[in-house]
Design a protein that fits this description.
The chain is an alpha+beta fold. Helices cover about 40% and strands about 15% of the residues. It has helices at about 30-45, 50-60; strands spanning about 5-10, 20-25.
């Protein structure tokens, strides 16, 4: 199977902040697997930001994902 998912309740210890995602390994599993394993770790340095949308925009924007 080439699809992966992420379910992270209480992201960064915040009671009402959760991350859910499905990553489609359409052309192969490597990218979807990488996102599942690394996305939360990549966003963690931004956890002091109180705006979840801004965290995703900055965190993903660094990799050309908008």
């Amino acid at each position: 199977m080439e699809d992966y998912h992420i379910l992270n309740h209480n992201l960064f210890g915040r009671k009402h902040t959760h991350m859910f995602g499905v990553f489609d390994g359409h052309g192969g599993a490597r990218a979807a697997e990488f996102c599942t394993k690394k996305l939360v770790d990549h966003l963690e340095p931004l956890k002091s930001n109180k705006d979840p949308k801004a965290v995703l925009k900055v965190g993903l924007g660094e990799h050309g994902c908008e």
